[in-house]
Write a structure and sequence with these properties.
The structure holds 2 protein chains of 2 kinds.
Chain A: E1 4-9, E2 12-17, H1 18-35, H2 41-57, E3 66-67, H3 69-79, H4 90-103, H5 119-127, H6 131-143, H7 147-158, H8 165-171, H9 178-204, H10 208-250, E4 255-256, E5 259-260, H11 261-269, H12 272-301, H13 309-335, E6 339-348, E7 356-362, H14 364-367, E8 370-375, E9 381-385, E10 391-395, E11 397-402, E12 409-418, H15 421-429, E13 435-438, E14 441-445, E15 447-451, E16 460-467, E17 472-475, E18 500-505, E19 508-512
Helix pairs in contact in A: 1-2, 1-3, 2-3, 5-6, 6-7, 9-10, 10-12, 11-12, 12-13
Chain B: H1 2-28, H2 34-43, H3 53-62, E1 66-71, E2 79-84, H4 86-112
Antiparallel strand pairs in B: 1-2
Helix pairs in contact in B: 1-4
The chains are: A alpha+beta, B mainly alpha.
């Protein structure tokens, strides 16, 4: 038992089985598509319908009142497939090529199935999936840092809506899969082969330059098509990654040298508003080029045509605004580096009981905490600890020179930059630095520090140790990386001067061959537990 | 494989060129409805499927080479009976002339270049 449908074909009533009806309907629709751009399309279809009615009528008689699938197939065989009657008119040929173009699928927004902008349904149509999955994907991305939202807005802007019927067909056109790609490549290769074969013949003819040019153009064009897809993909991915990174900066995700993004910028600009300003400026200045890169990439990848002038103008304007904001903050900060003041404090050192002064450094409290750092100018490390997230710590420098008299003393030189000398001096004063001098040992802090309210303004601390002639000193291993420009007559590099005994001469230190090992003193190897907190500096 | 496609393509291109002439020629004998025209064309292997003819007839009619009138049919919907207009006859004469010339010229060319 089969369900039948009543149809009116060219004024005649037919009882037709459901599956036969579907077949007939599809056939007529195919013919309609074929002739849709031709003058007299309706008439052609009416004629064909009339003829079909005539052909089908033959199959109806007293013993058989219903049309079945076989009847339709026979009629179609007589009439021919729409593809078979593309031989008669030039107009048809044109429709055919148009039809061929329509086959390759392009991305459009699907206005008919939209929830918001039709982006998801359009993408679903492109990939032949249910819009639900794409929507779920965007929702998931939305909860991941809100990237889904941004991507959606961008796609909404760049993907055109399918408005005409042709665009709607293109939206669901022939899928781009391995089969169609290999087909296209084969066709291209075949055409190329033919052209190369013809080239030899063409050479003999007059217009050689033109022919070769044309051929090169065609080859270039084919390559360009493939390359543009690859480039499009790369652009999109790079743009997306960098854009995500920039979003992280904007929303304080992640850390720089163990400082939060906000605190990192704060250390340079020193005000919450300026942090907002520089972040917005950076977002526009760095973000917009990558948004545009993503935009162009997506366009290349999905063969989206057309440009929006307003989009380019808006992007350009915003980018310029970002540039101005960045430049403003940069110049503001740069101005703050214009003057340098060094505060020099002379510290007397106890005349040691023995001949040998042992110089050590200590960073015990910090060493365990040092999480990250950066190499500002080789020997200069700025670090901060996880315990005090708003503090900056830098490595102090130690320079040892001959004393001009018989006294042993040192200078602690703190320096910083600022807009004016006075400001720089104030800033230098707020640097913490400690040292201890007990018995025959000079225990220096390896690091100096300041809070980020003081802003990073190239703060530095240098200890200038003046050693009288013939005095013997021992440079402990802990001084590694602290020694800076210390003269020695043996031409030993700073790094290798540690763990050695030295005697001062008028021209610098002189390396003494290892003395009696028994004498190796270790009074200050363990840092004193009652060590004072860092902040009260030596002023 | 490839050469087959080309052969078919060339053949259909040739047919396409003379299909108009043949259709006009069929109608020169008097009016006819599409099925009759197709039967004659099928005999001379000019068309393979009926669908080809309908767009052609509509086009010729729209260009005023043909005209038609309706006639009731006992075995189905009313039929369109086509006949040539004056313009159509003129076109037929021109096309016939061109055809004769072309056949002669082509035959001559083919004969003179005939492979041994």
């Amino acid at each position: 038992m089969n369900k039948t449908i009543n149809i009116n074909l060219s004024g005649m009533v037919f009882n037709i089985e459901e599956n036969a009806y579907q077949l007939l309907k599809d056939y007529l629709q195919a013919i309609k598509n074929k002739f849709k751009n031709e003058e007299g399309c309706d008439e052609i279809i009416a004629d064909i319908e009339a003829r079909l009615a005539e052909l089908l009528k033959v199959n109806i008689h007293a013993g058989k009142q219903v049309l079945i699938e076989n009847d339709i197939t026979q009629a179609i065989n007589i009439m021919g497939k729409p593809d078979d009657f593309g031989e008669s008119t030039p107009e048809e040929k044109q429709t055919q090529t148009e039809g061929k173009q329509n086959k390759t699928r392009r991305v459009f927004r699907d206005g008919d199935n939209k929830t918001l902008g039709g982006v998801c349904s359009g993408i679903a149509a492109y990939f032949d999936t249910d819009p639900l999955w794409i929507r779920v994907l965007f929702l998931v991305l939305f909860f991941g840092f809100g990237t889904g939202f941004f991507i959606y807005i961008i796609l909404w802007i760049i993907i055109p809506e399918a408005k005409t019927t042709a665009q709607k067909l293109e939206m669901r056109g022939e899928p781009i899969d391995m089969h169609t790609i290999s087909k296209t490549v084969k066709e291209e290769a075949e055409q190329l082969k033919n052209r190369l074969q013809n080239l030899g013949e063409d050479m003999r003819k007059s217009n050689v330059g033109g022919k070769v040019g044309n051929l090169l153009y065609q080859i270039f064009h084919a390559f360009f098509n493939i390359i543009s897809k690859v480039v499009g993909l790369v652009f999109t991915l790079v743009g997306l990654c960098v854009f995500a990174l920039i979003l992280c900066i904007l929303f304080n995700v992640g850390k720089v040298f163990n400082l939060s993004i906000h605190d990192f910028f704060y250390s340079f600009v020193g005000a919450d508003f300026s942090v907002f300003y520089i972040k917005t400026g950076l977002f526009l200045f760095l973000g917009i080029p990558f948004i545009m890169l993503m935009y162009k990439g997506t366009k290349l990848l999905l063969s989206i045509r057309g440009t929006y002038l307003w989009l380019n103008i808006t992007a350009g304007t915003l980018w310029f605004m970002g540039l101005v904001m960045c430049l403003y903050v940069f110049m503001h900060v740069a101005a703050d580096f214009s003057e340098e003041t060094a505060l020099k404090q002379r510290i007397p050192l106890l005349n040691t009981t023995t001949d040998t002064l042992i110089i050590q450094s200590e960073a015990s409290e910090l060493n365990t905490d040092v999480v990250s750092g950066f190499d500002w100018d080789r020997s200069h490390w700025y670090i901060n600890t996880s315990k005090q997230p708003n503090e900056w710590w830098g490595k102090a420098k130690l320079t040892i020179i001959p004393s001009e008299n018989d006294s042993l003393y040192a200078f602690v030189i703190k320096s910083a930059h600022g807009k004016e000398k006075q400001e720089a001096a104030e800033r230098a004063k707020r640097i913490w630095y400690n040292y201890k001098n007990q018995n025959d040992t000079l225990l220096l802090d390896k690091y100096f520090g300041f809070t980020n309210q003081n802003k990073y303004r190239n703060q530095e601390v240098e200890i200038l140790l003046k050693v009288p002639k013939n005095k013997i000193i021992f440079l402990d291993e802990t001084l590694r990386d602290m020694l800076f420009d210390t003269e020695n007559i043996n031409e030993i590099t700073d790094e290798e001067m540690i763990n050695k005994y030295w005697q001062m001469t008028p021209n610098g230190l002189n390396y003494l061959a290892p003395l009696e090992p028994a004498k190796t003193p270790e009074p200050a190897a363990a840092p004193s537990p009652q060590k004072a907190p860092k902040k009260p500096a030596c002023n | 494989m490839k050469s087959n496609i080309n052969t078919e393509n060339t053949q259909s291109q040739m047919r396409k060129g003379v299909l108009e002439l043949c259709t006009l020629s069929v109608l020169a004998n008097g009016e006819a409805y599409p099925t009759e025209i197709i039967e004659q064309l099928k005999e001379s292997k000019m068309v393979v499927v009926e669908g080809t003819l309908y767009p052609l007839l509509t086009r010729l009619k729209n260009a005023n080479y043909l005209t038609y009138h309706w006639e009731e049919s006992t075995s189905g919907p009313p039929r369109k009976y086509y006949r040539l207009t004056e313009q159509g006859e003129k076109l037929l004469n021109e096309l016939e002339h061109t055809w004769d010339e072309m056949v002669q010229a082509v035959n001559k060319l083919l004969k003179s270049n005939k492979r041994k």
